[in-house]
Task: inverse folding
């Protein structure tokens, strides 16, 4: 429950670029929450032994994700402000995937000694902006020195929808499969970054996919709207195929998808073409899209259609749940070969993770 | 919400010492929870986008602490099993400090490529033992590759006591100050480790203080018993002086402590003497004791005394809250000079953190 005191840091800084090692771990501790909105009544926030979440007759959802420098991101590719926001958003996406609404986060951060204090401020500005967008608050965490890499571990707490959490499993044969937004754009952005193209670029297509990768959104509103209609729901963080596998892992079901129906936008197609890649691969295996994958029983499909018309929800039907096992993707009347080794992590072009 | 699949790892291991890099991040994922107790009805555990905590009319407490190799611990000094247990316990101690009962944890773990799979198993055996002791469960987390140091970030969720969370602040002039257990032993253990003495040693004193450092306990029962009587409560993780400062930071109060009353056991005195140190310094500045510091109004002191007699609670009165600012420690009729720079981190003998 220790949080950095930027004010103190600044006062004690000698040079223009103040570094974490110049000020020390103990003197670093206390007020990043100055950058944050005031925690609502009923919560206990930063400064005590533990944070407190008020009673909720719906219970609480909680998710935790760790990001490490040079494994999950590179400082040359993403700014501290973008990283702070993205770390929050990817966790909120897990809450959205359960049909819930994010309410509070905790951040554990490990700072290398030569990390610039100004970058910490930018990081928490990004965290704060992401929180503000979804009306959530920072209630605690931990701040430590790192002997090597920058590490950020975020926990997010959210309230489930009125009917409780919407699980990953539960899809039934006959359910129709929908995805929100567009797929593959984030991976297209990663391809650009790995080829030395930096945010912000001057090309409209480039900006669009770089934005998808560096500044994704969490589909919280869509999750609360679709959740009550869904048999099963998850967010697409590891690529569509990987999520379809997870969704059908139990229950003796499979899926049949039409490749042509998968929403891949023009910017993603442009980038794929430029680098001699298949844009569909980006959508199927790329990952980090943070869109929702939803199984809707046929009887409620008309309600989804109504949501599209009345709420401006961007959602596309891509296939159907079957009682035959396996992931089947049809393309131009033929069945595509699915390569499970092409998961997000193995598909990555120039990323240095395994 | 990804957790390692030890079974799969073992099957895919070629040599006796299977390492994380031999099996890869993606194939590592799924069943550390085999080592864990089954999550109670009403919770959603590992495997979905987010974990779910059932409704509680008391709300939930949450705390998060990050441990990094060579910053917070050294592998030569502590076993993976001890580390796993300690990581859970230090978080549970934060819940105990709010008068709450820990119920569930999430673990984010970053594994270097050459980390042994057997060590992961030992780590989670330690986590599991700590959970079992307090009847709590593992409900989720994240597992990632680390480019360098081993990192473990634990979140713990707990239910507050019947009267809600017991805060760090709230002590009033006239309140009597109590601490549970003994202080300084953990630091004495750290002194031994920094001088090359390893667990388990053959000396009774050594074993006692090494145990205090490597395998601390969380004062959950004491917290639930003392919480309802207390104006303020916290756990002693950073040394008594540091916690007294935190407790008196707001509210225009101070404290008066009697050095002779501070519970420092014989084993700690033995080690301090052997290394030419003052055992009282260990208790005042050492940290990592995870005992509770409690401010009790005079009208309820007799209830604390009754708890000692009927519940075997080990608790010692060490001083009083005053309406004069500052931390005053009397020793042999004179006032000791308090050195605030002697915090846990700066006092450390041979630790390599700042």
Result:
């Amino acid at each position: 429950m220790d949080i950095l005191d930027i004010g103190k840091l600044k006062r004690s800084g000698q040079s223009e670029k103040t570094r974490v090692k110049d000020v020390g771990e103990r003197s670093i501790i206390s007020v990043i929450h100055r950058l944050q909105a005031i925690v609502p009544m009923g919560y206990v926030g930063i400064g005590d032994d533990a944070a407190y979440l008020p009673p909720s007759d719906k219970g609480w959802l909680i998710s935790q994700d760790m990001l490490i420098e040079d494994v999950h991101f590179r400082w040359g590719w993403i700014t501290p402000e973008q990283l702070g926001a993205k770390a929050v958003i990817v966790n909120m996406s897990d809450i959205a995937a359960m049909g819930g609404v994010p309410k509070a986060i905790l951040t554990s951060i490990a700072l290398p000694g030569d990390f610039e204090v100004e970058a910490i401020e930018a990081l928490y500005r990004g965290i704060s902006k992401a929180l503000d967008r979804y009306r959530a608050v920072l209630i605690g965490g931990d701040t430590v020195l790192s002997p090597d890499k920058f590490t950020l571990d975020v926990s997010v707490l959210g309230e489930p929808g009125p009917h409780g959490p919407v699980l990953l499993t539960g899809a039934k044969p006959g359910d129709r499969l929908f995805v929100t937004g567009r797929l593959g754009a984030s991976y297209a952005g990663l391809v650009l970054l790995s080829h030395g193209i930096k945010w912000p670029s001057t090309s409209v297509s480039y900006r669009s996919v770089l934005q998808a990768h560096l500044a994704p959104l969490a589909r919280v509103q869509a999750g609360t709207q679709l959740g009550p209609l869904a048999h099963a729901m998850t967010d697409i963080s590891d690529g569509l195929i990987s999520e379809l596998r997870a969704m059908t892992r139990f229950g003796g079901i499979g899926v049949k998808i039409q490749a042509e129906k998968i929403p891949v936008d023009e910017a993603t197609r442009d980038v794929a073409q430029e680098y001699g890649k298949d844009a569909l691969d980006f959508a199927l295996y790329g990952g980090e899209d943070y869109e929702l994958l939803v199984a809707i029983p046929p009887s409620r499909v008309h309600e989804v259609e109504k949501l599209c018309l009345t709420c401006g929800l961007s959602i596309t039907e891509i296939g159907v749940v079957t009682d035959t096992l396996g992931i089947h993707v049809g393309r131009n009347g033929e069945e595509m070969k699915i390569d499970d080794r092409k998961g997000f992590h193995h598909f990555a072009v120039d990323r240095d993770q395994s």
